[in-house]
Amino acid sequence: MIRRTETAPDVTRADVRIVVITVRHTGDAADPQAGAETAAVRRSQQAWPDGLVSWSLFRSTDGQALMAYEQWTGDEALDAALAAHSPAAYVPGIPGAEPSASVRYRLNRSHVSPSRQDAVGCVVTPVFDVDGPERQRHFIDEVFAMTKDVPPMPGSIAAHFHTSLDGTRVFNYAEWRDEQSHVDAVTADDPRGVRRRVSGEIPGVRPCGYRRWLPHATLVAAGSGDVR
């Protein structure tokens, strides 16, 4: 049995080893929310493979894209689901379109602010292209060192840094109270130059932009744990 909520997933679940992230560009869809709902319903009606902990769907605040965030117990479970030879074989990502390119990640490190008690109303996802695993580690170390003594911005809940298994990307899944809190943060003063350094001054790291997302639905197998 699949249980559904309209909340964001618990990113730091201890039973998760692999995260699969898929972004599908929807263009100027007439009703982005209806499109997201159709995808969520279709996913809930499909077979739920062993090892899939949760599947979450987000709508971009500009109405141009959908993002699926899947949590898996490990590579073996995901590989088995992909290798299944049956009409109901699992396809990662977002139902309702041709399969999108999915990327496998591992959660590397998280920073949680004192406002963790706030509900997650918006997720912001800066993505960085990097030159290999060493640059992944170095970049995350640099971000944590630069922000160690910086007070949290109002509305910031947590930042969860993911590294792609192929060594080419860093994906920051940042949780915020709402979209406006993040808008205010990126337009606020930056006296220590943290945003400037993160946005292009670390060798071997190239920012690829970010999107803001609204949680649409999270599906979990009944009894496999809670979402927030």
Plain-language structure description:
This protein has 2 domains: 2-105 and 216-221, Alpha-Beta Plaits (2-Layer Sandwich), CATH 3.30.70; 108-212, Alpha-Beta Plaits (2-Layer Sandwich). Helix content is 22%, strand content 33%. The two termini are 19 Å apart. The chain has helices at residues 32-45, 75-83, 133-146, 179-187, 194-198, and strands spanning 2-5, 18-25, 52-60, 65-72, 103-112, 122-124, 127-130, 156-164, 169-176, 205-207, 212-221. The mean pLDDT is 90. The chain has 228 residues and is an alpha+beta fold. A hairpin with a 4-residue loop joins strand 8 and strand 9 (169-176).
Keywords:
single chain, 228 residues, alpha+beta, Alpha-Beta Plaits, 8-stranded antiparallel beta barrel, 11 strands, 22% helix
Short description:
It contains five helices and eleven strands.
How many domain modules? 2
Cα-atom radius of gyration:
17 Å
CATH architecture of the largest domain: 2-Layer Sandwich
By CATH, the topology of the largest domain is: Alpha-Beta Plaits
Q: What's the story with the biggest beta sheet?
A: 8 strands, antiparallel, barrel
Question: How far do the termini sit from each other?
Answer: 19 Å
H/E element order: EEHEEHEEEHEEHHEE
Shape: globular
Strand order in space, largest sheet:
2-4-3-11-6-9-8-5
Q: What is this structure's SSE topology?
A:
Layout: E1 2-5, E2 18-25, H1 32-45, E3 52-60, E4 65-72, H2 75-83, E5 103-112, E6 122-124, E7 127-130, H3 133-146, E8 156-164, E9 169-176, H4 179-187, H5 194-198, E10 205-207, E11 212-221
